[in-house]
Amino acid sequence: MSIPSGAVEIPARVRALARGDRLTPVWRNGLGGLTFRAEGGDAGGSAPTRYLKWGPWNAETSMAAEAERLVWAGRYTRVPEVLEHGADGEHEWLVTAAVAGRSAVDPRWLADPATAVRVVGEGLRALHDALPVADCPFDWGVHARVANALQRGIEVPEELLEPPSIDRLVVCHGDACVPNTLVHDDGAWAGHVDLGALGVADRWADLAVAAMSTGWNYGPGWSDALIAAYGVEPDPLRQAYYADLWNAT
């Protein structure tokens, strides 16, 4: 996953969804999916800023599943409002209203990793504290993830089939890598995006991935700072297990 550089071909479906607004590519994932920001401007559009996600069907999760989760989570925490979503035989798409804030991997925050890491940790704790486990209809537990991986033809190592005991059940983000936290310009948590796998699981399923992803985005040495900002002590056993599960599935 990366911020696109150079020219990006805009799919016809995305142009239609933009309805004449100016399009800027902001994200590309490893499956060929693209996210664009649509803004009124020289092209004559007048709609509020929104984000258009478009990509091939994905067996791990879907944009319809993300739309369902965003609608549910939006009752409790700051996530994008779903405006429309759909699919054809090969691709799917999701249109959401813009949420104020920049990704924690925006150049502004890559230049200030100490603030970004703190906000990612604090924001993840806020998300976990806000979303009610008892009312959540979505499952992201280990057995559900292993079953999904097997359906996609992924053989999960035997040592990952039995997880550590649960520390605390929460409604997990499901992809808590640091780019999916939004940060206000004053260094406050703004919200979360990309919740297609949101569901109930041990909080370390999110924490381990968030901590691991600091190394990919800011360099080594930030993992413990993120966990401290979340408000717990490191847990090497659960961190290692859930990092391995993430990489395996």
From TrEMBL:
Mg(2+) binds at residues 180, 194. It comes from the Bacteria. One of its GO terms (biological process) is response to antibiotic. The keyword Metal-binding applies. Gene3D superfamilies: 3.90.1200.10, Phosphorylase Kinase, domain 1. InterPro entries: Aminoglycoside_PTrfase, Kan/Strep_kinase, Kinase-like_dom_sf. Keywords: Antibiotic resistance, ATP-binding, Kinase, Magnesium, Metal-binding, Nucleotide-binding, Transferase. This is Aminoglycoside phosphotransferase APH(3'). The lineage of its organism: Bacteria, Bacillati, Actinomycetota, Actinomycetes, Micrococcales.
